[in-house]
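Sanity check

After download, print the first record. It should look like this:
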Amino acid sequence: MRLNFRPAKGWRAFIGEVGVIVLGVLIALGAQQAAESVNERRAAAEARDAVVGEIEEMLAVLQLRQAAEPCVERRLKELRAIVDQWGRTGSFTTPRWVAQAPWFLSSTARFEAAQASGRLALLPTEEQYRLGLITGTLRNFREIQERELDAWAKLRALQSGADALSARDRTEIRMALQEASLLDYRAKTAAGQGLTFAAGYGWRPSRRRLDYMLSRGWKNGRFSPSICFPINTPPQVVNQNLFFPVPE
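Expected structure tokens:
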């Protein structure tokens, strides 16, 4: 059976009505896409600001490590002389303050949050690469710091004096000294590369949060690395300025 359909108002009016409906749908879809695009740009800008802010705060930490490097290098040299003396004579002049390499709270939480939420993927590919490169360097620096804590804890055994240590202790301390030296080299490299790369991308160290952190670490609110005190300094003298004393 053949149907003979004809619009009541004619084909021209029918086509016009359909066109209006289609146009309305297209306008709605366009408006939705525009709104989504605006939201994505806003999310991308928020992610960028958060991650760059985090990076610039951590760059200030790298600067502090560089400032303390002369003290770290001097202490490693002094400890090497002590271990060498121990090997030659079976004894050594007992150091009162071995200390440790500076340790700073380091975080890449904002980068990881932006990555997990997918907001990082909204940024241009090159920008994602730059943020990832610097964040990777900061993660590496954080790992180095954690390993340094273990190495320097073993080196502080020298404060017990030769009579309290065995030949096996001497071997372990010598190995810890090599580890501390290697980690210091890696820390210097990470700090130098991180600051150089960041400067090339237009990012500069920010001390906004760091100054607060320093006020929670040192009673005088100033960065005063314990390793910069002479090796014969009594521990209580050094620790009196620290909210969290370095273990002896």
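If your output differs, re-run the checksum step. Summary of this record's structure: Residues 11-239 form one domain.
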